[in-house]
Design goal:
Blueprint: E1 13-14, H1 17-25, E2 35-39, H2 45-51, E3 57-62, H3 65-74, E4 82-84, H4 93-96, E5 102-106, H5 112-121, E6 128-134, H6 135-142, H7 152-160, E7 161-169, E8 174-175, E9 182-189, H8 199-211, H9 217-220, H10 222-225, H11 244-255
Parallel strand pairs: 2-3, 2-5, 3-4, 5-6
Antiparallel strand pairs: 1-8, 6-9, 7-9
């Protein structure tokens, strides 16, 4: 019995096996990571091809009870690794322990950005993210400085992952077909062992800068620099002009401000 896609879960089941094969084949086992969690497997279109990669230790997670029942019926070899849970709310260590694991999937569009940010929170345990997103989200993650698409998500993901936009997928290969095209990206953890500035401050600087992206950075982060004499060449620019390394440099400079001189 087939599972009916549920609109409120953002389900669009991938029906083109060639696309599923391409996604499964492009998971790169970054840093030797063979343990993989597939999110939103639905009826297992992608699961079939991930299972063909015998080196992978595959787990699947879905919030949809109908999908879980289908997977238990059709994938008996995965019985102990089929997890009914909400990825966004799940304590991942209860499933994966402290072991590194990759995240793969045809991700539900209505929560795809949240999935990326949760992976970012667990970046030291997730060396690779590989899968399909709404094309707009995929492009935003992979975008380079200088465009209107480049933003908070671009900078924060690229600060910790190398991003590759792999290919675009048309609407007609899904059931039901979405109203937008999709994009497949691969995110592999970069070589930073330690972050070169205060991470919380870095995130704050990035978010404040893009929350008022039409303003110069000086105006956007004035709460951080207050009434000091702090100056920096980047303050005259708009945030889309700054690379990840530029934001790191700016954060390092903000860290050095004499806080006793900041006006209330």
């Amino acid at each position: 019995m087939a599972v009916k896609a549920k609109k409120h879960l953002g389900q669009h089941f991938l029906t083109d096996k060639n696309i599923c094969l391409k996604i499964a084949a492009q998971y790169r086992n970054h840093n030797g990571c063979n343990k993989v969690l597939e999110i939103g497997p639905g009826m297992g279109a992608l699961t079939d091809f991930l299972l063909q990669r015998e080196e992978l230790d595959l787990y699947v997670m879905d919030i949809d009870r109908d999908s879980i029942a289908y997977l238990n019926d059709h994938y008996p070899a995965l019985t102990d690794k089929i997890i009914e849970a909400d990825f966004l709310k799940m304590d991942l260590k209860k499933i994966m322990g402290d072991a590194p694991f990759g995240v793969v999937g045809n991700f539900p569009y209505n929560i795809s950005s949240q999935i990326l940010f949760k992976c970012l929170d667990h970046r030291n345990q997730i060396p690779e993210i590989m899968g399909m997103f709404q094309k707009e989200v995929a492009e935003r993650v992979a975008e380079k400085p200088g465009s209107k698409t480049y933003g908070i998500m671009s900078v924060l993901l690229q600060a910790f992952y190398d991003i590759e936009y792999c290919f675009t997928v048309d609407e007609h290969v899904f059931n039901p077909p979405p109203k937008v095209k999709s994009g497949v990206i691969r995110c592999t953890r970069n070589s930073r062992e330690t972050f070169p500035c205060n991470e919380k401050l870095f995130i704050q600087v990035v978010k404040m800068s893009f929350n008022q992206r039409r303003k110069t950075i000086r105006n956007s982060i004035k709460q951080l620099i207050g009434g000091t004499n702090f100056d920096h060449p980047f303050l005259t620019l708009r945030p889309e002009r700054l690379s990840v390394e530029d934001f790191i440099e700016l954060t390092q400079a903000v860290e050095k401000i004499d806080r006793t001189a900041v006006s209330e």
